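Aim 2 progress update. The chain analyzed this quarter is reproduced below.
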Amino acid sequence: MEFLRAQSKLRAQIQAKASLTALRQLANAIREQDTDGSFTVSRPQFESALSSCQLFLNTQELDTMLSHYDMNHSGSMAYEEFLAGLRGVLNHRRKAFVQSVFAKLAGSTDSVTPDTVRAGFNAAAHPGVRSMVTNAEEVRSQFDTVFDGASAKALSVDDFERIVCDISACYDKDTDFISLLSDTFGVEEGASLGSTIQEAVGVNTAPLCGEARAMLAVQRRRQAEEERKARLLDPKARMIGCDVDALNRQVEERRQAGLEDQVREDQAAMQARLVAERGMALERQVELQRRQKQCDDVAYNHAYQRKQFRREYDLSNPDGNKNDLPIRMGDDDPRLGLSSLQVFHGEDAGFSSRTNQQRAQQRSWVMAQMDEKAQQQHELQQADRVFAARQQEFLSRAVELESIQSRQIREKRMVADEFNHAMTVQKKEEQRQNLLQDAAEELEELRCNLDSALLSEVQEPSSLGPHRKRKDAYKGMSADEVVGVYKDQERQRRENAAHRDALQGEDSAWAQYDSACVRAGMAMEREEDRKRKEQNAKYAEAQRQDAKLAETRKQHMNHVYKNEITSDFFSQFGTSAR
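Predicted structure tokens:
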């Protein structure tokens, strides 16, 4: 994470220069520091190269970059890997647009010369030139510098992309980079996308219709059928019964996959070991940096932050009186100039007037304070009187409101008492009227009962016949009727006892019948088991006879038919693909 942050900071500084040769200048500066041709630079050389290009990294970021590109832990960094990581690679959008620019410059060929590239570059159309940030001559010089390192021979598309990567690293946004190439080379991004699609499909290829796709499918099936026929007609493969080449290819692919897995595991182990070593080296560097920082802090405190260097040290210096000089050392003191005034002890002529003025001023201050305090007391008393008057007014108003409220409450209570009294009188009158009405109704009921046939026992005969009794006039059974009821009850008891005895006899008969059925069923099951065992024995004997007959037939067939494969058997194969 620290390495990516440092790399992004350095790339941002390069992009902030808004120059096509910013990365090329850094690469040239670093290569100039490599005097021994070892393709590595030390830390001082790397710092010198950054300073010459006006690029800056702090101490921690420098240590991070050096430790990341220090491949052999020698204290020097491989600057080619550093430049490659800083340059990066073209993403899909930028690469497609660069290829479209190359296609325009190369035309129908697959290469282009640096002179053709310079001739196709229009510096006046540069976005910086059009916005008057720079001029066309400077842009042309920068572009020529980028392609100065290219050989005079023709450049391939890979060479062109590698050179343009230096320009791409100077622009963070894809839109800025594509706008630069689009304006200077006159290529639109939409046209490049269309050419890429046309190249993928074919220059003169029209969209395939349904019939064309069907023809292609038929051709693929015919080709697959020819390959299958070649495999089937191979005598070796036909006799073995499988595709030997396919099996060999699978074995080889499996072996190659195993080797690749082993190589990947070895590389992963090596990478893990390198990462662990690098992590330990980084931890040691961090510890050394921390110790160095502590030592630097202690040395700085000892050198520049001593107690006697403080600005307020003169106020608390214990030797201040010893080191302080008197006002004057004498008449020949060089500190006394022409305008210096020498004052001697005891020569204060204005002492009495000054003290009188001070006393008068102090007296006036005290009087002003007394007047101010008296005024404050008067204002406080006045405020208290006003507050007391307001409180009295509020209290009287509250008493008046309370008396009015109590009078209203008394009036409401009197009205409620009068209403309740009237309601009580009305309720008592209603109760008296109800009592009188109830008494009249009771008297009328007594009169009706006395005059009714219930008490006089004079009843009319039933309308159903003289032998029927009326329910409303029935008063009970006679003695004969009671005796008849007793006789009927006794008869019913005898009939119920006889019915119960009949039911018990029927239940016992059914129980005997069930037990007889169970015994008969068990006997039938035993007979069925006996018959089944006899049938199984017959089946077993028949199966033994069949097995003996089958064995005899098999021996006969083996003796008659030898099942030997002759040349006629193989001649029937290989005549067709199916």
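The two ends are 65 Å apart (CA to CA). The mean pLDDT is 81. These observations will guide the mutagenesis experiments scheduled for the next reporting period.
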